[in-house]
Amino acid sequence: MRTEGDVPRCGFIVSRRLGTAVTRNRVRRRLREIVRALLPRVESGWDLALVARGAAAGATYDELRSAVEDVFGKAGVLAE
After folding, report:
1. What are the structural domains of the chain?
2. Are residues 48 and 11 in contact, defined by beta-carbon separation less than 8 angstroms?
3. Looking at the DSSP assignment, which residues form a beta bridge with residue 52?
4. What are the pLDDT digits (tens) for 2-43?
5. What is the DSSP string of 12-70?
6. What was the pLDDT predicted at 36?
7. pLDDT at 80
8. Which of 22, 23, 64, 79 sits in a 20 to 30 Å window from 6, CA-based?
9. Residue 66 has pLDDT above 90, yes or no
10. Taking Cα atoms as reference points, which of 53, 48, 51 lies closest to residue 72?
């Protein structure tokens, strides 16, 4: 969602259906690190929400990073 803010913000939704607390926290930590690395490339004024789906529980870090970059690119939030 486009906002009037100066800084892009990101929230994470990781449902209990994804697995145990250990699995959910691992996915959340990986997503946070991926977004932290991509945030300088995100245009200002965006509020983003990432919803982790079932496949995220078994995905590697590189697979998650690739998926997030792909989604951000399709959404048009990356300034390049």
Report:
1. 1-51 (3.30.230.10)
2. yes
3. 14
4. 767 677 889 999 999 999 999 999 999 999 999 999 988 888
5. EEE-GGG-SHHHHHHHHHHHHHHHHHHGGGBPSSBEEEEEE-GGGGT--HHHHHHHHHH
6. 93
7. 63
8. 64
9. yes
10. 48
